[in-house]
Amino acid sequence: MADDDNNDPFSEPGDIDRTVIRPTPGRRPPGGGGPGGGPGGGQGRAAPPPRQPAPPPPPPAAARGPSPFEEPEPADAPARPSPGGARAEPGRGEGGRATAGGGATAAPVGDIAESLAERSRHNPIVAAAAPLLSLIARLRLGGTHRDPDALRDRVMDEFESFNRRLKTTDVPEDQHRTAHYVLSATMDDVVLNTPWGSGSIWAREGMTVCFHGEAYGGKRFFNLLKRMSDNPGRNGRVLELIYLCLSLGFEGEMRVLDRGRSEHRRTRDGLYRLLADIRGELPEDLSPHWRGVTAGHRPVSSLIPVWVIVSATAVALVLLYLGFAWWLNSDSDDLYAAFAGLPPTGAIVIEQVTPPPPPPPEPPPEVETQVERVRGFLEPEIAEGLVNVLENAQAITIRLRARGMFESASATVSERFSEVIRRVGLALNDEPGTVVVEGHTDSLPIRTVRFPSNFDLSLARAEAVRDQLKPLLTDPSRLTVEGKAATEPIADNGTPEGREANRRTDIILIKQGT
Questions:
Q1: Cα separations in angstroms, 212 against 82, 154, 186, 216, 404
Q2: What's the pLDDT tens digit per position in 408-441?
Q3: May I ask the CATH architecture of the domain 2-30+50-70+89-279?
Q4: How far apart are the C-alpha atoms of 151 and 407, rounded to whole Å?
């Protein structure tokens, strides 16, 4: 891994530990993670599946010479242990596993640059931010730092390099600014929550103060996340950077909330699902250890000979048959004797008596139906051709002719049809049931300020008819309106006559019990 050390501008001489945020949450790592194979897989030991979706770590930076971010080791500094050593370093738990206080566990199981090499080829923002993301991961797990002021100066230089690298890509300016801000806020949030950060110059002159003129970036960070999420297709690359920052330790204002950690996890999980929807990247396996043990099939015939199974089955069937036959024959003689003594012994004659015919039914009383009452009341209007009354199994429809009822592109009822609507309201007042007023138009489009579409015009006309019916009904709550536009034509919209027939207002009385 010596070559990889040169790719990380924040590496330190002799540093062999890396931090990896695995990009395959809930899945077995490539090569298997079970017994006997895969990274970290010892004999008879399987790594537990992560409960939290983890982001891919930052991509590698371009290879270069000695890093300006390296911190020289003191001459008397103790040598770092090998990966298999037993000595624990500050910020590490049992077995050398690095832990972040209050956060998720990250294991030094590979190079952070290697794990995101593939992702950086598709996201220039993450590629440009690779050195800063690597430093954020290192600072979050580190215990102390000998020269915070010098580190701050080098970080500011790296932010300038980040700007220069992004300007050579196709990233829009607004995404460039957002990416710079979230990186600044994340760097400040992680540093100020280290043992040495709160007492250093960083507390007064952090990245957000120097570059963006604000002392606290937690609130605006989540506002930017919400704004970027409104258009995930365009802002997917920035959202991926924000997801990495959340996973590498940014908490902001959630750090001091009562349920901040669960809210932080919920926010990060939602962003993870949003990114998965954009790319169509879904986990292949629901469990990292779902595969069974590979074992050869041993058929039953290899354990018991076939002739033994056939012989035992034949003997069982014979014994079963003999048992049923004996049981039936033991009681059959008594049953036959009982049947023989049952009366009658002679022929049976059935005497049939023809009953008198029933009296004819009384004629049903004549009852006037709802549709007959409505048609009778509106007979003058029907004869004049102003309305038409239709009926089906569920409803009675009173259809008002559109000609003369409304002006073109208007929803005001003419005075002549106001009298017709009054007559319809009187006819419906005594009839039970819900009343639906439907407005219909032809298929010719309309584009006015008041009525941008035929749907708005049809709905406005239906509401105008409803407003005239309300005072005439004892229970106005029976009335509802619907705008149908040209969705339910009754004639061909290709002819003037058909379009005139389609421009109508239907007053529908829903029959009770339907």
A1: 42, 18, 13, 10, 66
A2: 888 888 888 889 999 999 999 988 999 999 999 8
A3: Alpha Horseshoe (1.25)
A4: 77
